[in-house]
Amino acid sequence: MTVYFTLVCDDPPYGVVLTDPGPRPVEVVKALHRRTGLSLWRSKVLIGDLPATVLADVPEQDAVAMAAALREAGARADAVRMPPLRP
Description:
By secondary structure, the protein is of the alpha+beta class.
């Protein structure tokens, strides 16, 4: 007999979606570089193709902190709950 289990996590994964670089895109590129470790060039390319998920599958606190840092730099960003993965 085979028994299958579905794991239910207390902390669902979150992500950060960047929707608008705002009036200071250079500051947003620098914030992305500092917080994600992406190169400056890759960060610039990322904000050129919006909306973009800049962080995925992280705890809620990390997603909220990243979204706050991007908003502080002048961007429009949201911490969103990621949909569950389907097998």
